[in-house]
């Protein structure tokens, strides 16, 4: 059975970023996560990671559209 929660190393691999960058996403609150276990290891629910990816797609679309509109408005 697949795990519901992912360690930050798996999150980093999925997003093709460093472990430090994944940790920064969690610490900033951009990517919701929980601390589990006696050592307080971070875990990200798979659905939260998917929601984060979808938000990033939406932000990118909005940014590209704004750039296109701004560029089209130039004389």
Question: How would you characterize this protein structure?
Answer:
There is one protein chain. The chain is an alpha+beta fold and 75 residues long. It has a single domain, classed as Multidrug-efflux Transporter Regulator, Chain: A, Domain 2, CATH 1.10.1660. Helix content is 61%, strand content 15%. It is built from three helices and three strands, in the order βααββα. Strands 1-3-2 form a three-stranded antiparallel β-sheet. Helix 1 packs across helix 2. The chain is elongated, with a radius of gyration of 16 Å. The termini are far apart. The model has no long low-confidence stretch (mean pLDDT 93).
Q: What does the average pLDDT come to?
A: 93
CATH architecture: Orthogonal Bundle
- Profile the largest sheet: 3 strands, antiparallel
**Share of helical residues:** 55-70%
Low-confidence stretches: none
Brief overview, please?
It contains 3 helices and 3 strands; from the N terminus they run βααββα. It has helices at residues 8-15, 19-28, 46-73, and strands at residues 5-7, 34-36, 41-45.
Please give the structural blueprint.
Layout: E1 5-7, H1 8-15, H2 19-28, E2 34-36, E3 41-45, H3 46-73
Antiparallel strand pairs: 1-3, 2-3
Helix pairs in contact: 1-2
């Amino acid at each position: 059975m697949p795990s519901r929660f992912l360690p930050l190393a798996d999150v980093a691999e999925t997003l093709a970023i460093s472990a430090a960058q994944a940790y920064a996403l969690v610490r900033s609150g951009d990517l919701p996560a929980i601390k589990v276990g006696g050592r307080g290891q971070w875990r990200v629910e798979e659905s939260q990671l998917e929601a984060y990816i979808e938000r990033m797609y939406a932000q990118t679309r909005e940014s590209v559209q704004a750039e296109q509109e701004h560029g089209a408005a130039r004389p």
